[in-house]
Amino acid sequence: MTDLSSLLAPGRVAVITGAAVGIGAAAARYFSACGMRLCLFDRDQKALDILSAELSLAGPVEVVVGDVTSYEDLCRLRDTAYGAFEEIAILMNNAGISAGAGPWSDIPAWRHQLEVNFFSVLTAQTIFVPRMIAQDSHVAIINLGSKEGITTPPGNAAYSVAKAGVKVSTEQLAHELRQIPQSKVTAHLLVPGYT
Question: Which of 64, 56, 58, 50 is nearest to 17 (CA)?
């Protein structure tokens, strides 16, 4: 089990997608208060710049503006984080949307929901994990789930399916990482209620 203090230590690095507002911004403020350096990713440049200006008073902040559904943008995030800081302690896959679709309607909305809430997490894992495994320090991957991915209430089937996918893929990632001898990378599912 990883000692949390080794992750939330001053000088270590947190990378957060969907960082400009909401849970992502709250996490950025918390990590900054721990003395961590930050690499923040969001498509909303204005909100990201405001948050970055606030947090840069406490320590280094790198900003990457991009679309979480873009493989190239997520590669740019990884390259920016490692280029600026050389290591990562926390990757928080937080970006998400809630507007979805019902079980027999709007296939384009289904695809968009899955691209943002599920495939972006899976893509970030494929981009970041090999480099994290090669690090000689502890790393935590935190994927944002939802209780709707567990309880699957009616009303937003596409969202529930996407978040259920995040739950299962995070559990699988955790299992696979434990199979690597001396692995210092762990995977975690954050399941907030309504926020």
Answer: 64
Name the CATH topology of 4-190.
Rossmann fold (3.40.50)
Using only C-alpha atoms, the chain has a radius of gyration, in whole angstroms, of 16
Q: Are 171 and 188 in contact (CB under 8 A)?
A: no
Q: Where are the domains of the chain?
A: 4-190
Q: Give the catalytic positions in this structure.
A: 159, 163
Could you count the other beta carbons within 10 Å of the beta carbon of residue 71? Answer: 14
- Predicted TM-score of the model (pTM): 0.95
57-98 pLDDT, tens digit each: 999 999 999 999 999 999 999 999 999 999 999 999 999 998
Rounded (10°) CA dihedral 138, 144, 147, 149: -110
Q: How far apart are CA 171 and CA 43, in angstroms?
A: 28
CB neighbour list of residue 190: distance below 8 Å, 6 or more residues apart: 92, 142, 143, 144, 145
181: exposed, middle or buried (Cβ count in 10 Å: 0-12, 13-18, 19+) = exposed
Report the distance separating Cα 193 and Cα 183, nearest Å.
Answer: 31
If you write DSSP's letter for every residue of 17-68 in order, what string do you get? ES-SSHHHHHHHHHHHHTT-EEEEEES-HHHHHHHHHHHTTTS-EEEEE--T
